[in-house]
Amino acid sequence: VKTADSAERRKRVNGLLKYRYAWRGYHQVSLPTDPAVHRFTLTAVEDEVVIGTITVNFDSPDRLSSDGAFGPEVAQLRSTGKRLCEFTKLAIDPVVGTKRVLATLFHVAYIVAHRIRGFDTLLIEVNPRHVRYYERMLGLKVMALERLNTSVNAPAVLLGIDFEYIKSQIGEYGGQPEAAAKVRSLYPFALTLREEAAVI
Prior knowledge:
Layout: E1 2-3, H1 7-23, E2 39-46, E3 49-58, H2 67-79, E4 84-92, H3 99-116, E5 121-126, H4 131-138, E6 141-149, E7 154-162, H5 163-173, H6 193-199
């Protein structure tokens, strides 16, 4: 897993995003061209081929993408003192992407957002068809029901979770893929705590 900090890698990420979003019938999205301290993109790379990507947005005066469709709910969370961030622009190559790829991208994004930068609450917008998957596999909860996400011209549901819950699941299951046979979760495919410490 690497950061998308070079023009060539960002080009490859945009290619994957274009392919996966077009396949789903969404409006095309791409990475912003302006550098920003409140946003970063991770890529999963195998043999120099980008096979997955996820972008983390930290709450800032520019707000979050989820403010577009779910402004009142996001504002309410802010009013309680939550330090919010969101995971966006998730795409996995279906040919070579695996649960391990998704879990590792998610884990490294969590490390930077929570363990290093101290954010405490995660938000994700997902297509209504995928809600059960994220509830079951990562423990996310519905924060607001279906609305139109105008940036991709598709319906979205707002999901959220406290990072402390993610921390507890990684501590219990991380690095134990054999546990996936009895636990319907992505956390067994996450890094071990020793690997997490090395990333930090």
